[in-house]
């Protein structure tokens, strides 16, 4: 878990995306990009990294936190 916390907190956009999905529960890439004020390809890259770490899952074009992602998001918010 500590390694994942370091992975997320080491990049402000990863942390922001995790927090955004934690508060909104599910969003598509367009809304993530708009809320984060970054380009859609950047959002896709970050989401892919978080999917690889099993923190985010994708259903069609919608992204949401996994159970592990929710747990990690709560821990990061408390730091």
UniProtKB/TrEMBL annotation:
Residues 5-77 form the HVO-A0261-like N-terminal domain. Coiled coil: none annotated. SUPFAM superfamilies: Winged helix' DNA-binding domain. This is MarR family protein.
